[in-house]
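Report of the visiting student (M.T.), summer placement. My assignment was to run the structure pipeline on a short list of targets and document each run. The first record concerns DsbA family protein.
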Amino acid sequence: MQTLPENPLLFYVTDPMCAWCYGFTPVIRRLRALWFERLSVQVLVGGLNPYAQDPLTSPEKDRLAVNWHRAQGKSHLPFDYSFFLQKSTFYDTEPACRALLTVRHLRPGLSLEILRALHSAFFADGLDISNTHVLVEVLRPFGIPENLFLAVFETDEIYQQTQDEFDLVEQMGVNTLPSVYLDHTQGPRLISRGFCELPELEDRLIQALQIPY
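After the run finished, the structure tokens were exported:
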């Protein structure tokens, strides 16, 4: 009889400024709650659109807005579309990813909750989470002091670690956000690519756990 691994580890590859991730993070949180103390989740930052220095063009804004509408239709979560009304719309996801990686260093147990808060700040409240001051305010309710956050967030080391994680995710073969992988002795095993509902995600997880380690 196949013995299932104790407390399997899932890698959740995401980006705080990814619309489909915004819709999918509640699914991951419900899965973790359903599998309480039987499943661990580690958030990995995928870097949806890092280091962007130029504003979005009109066609890029149109494509992104359509993507948001589709994600909203699937997730039924609130979206604030004022982002697209700005004259110069910048869409650099690196700072938010770096903030999430900083949180993982400082408060690893809060990664999913803070990811949810970053999603909501950007998509529902229309806040610019590429702005350091906004990030500080989003994190404040979680008890992370501003000076402690900035002491890590602004270091060369965390910049490099963020890029290293982008590279790691690419090496894993991730080409869609969100993606979920099961940690395995022979390398991460893909569970889910893109948005799906909880029953489908749980079914895929159970199937993957049946494959011999």
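The helical segments are 19-34, 58-75, 94-106, 111-124, 132-139, 146-153, 156-171, 198-210. The mean pLDDT is 95. I thank the supervising group for their guidance throughout the placement.
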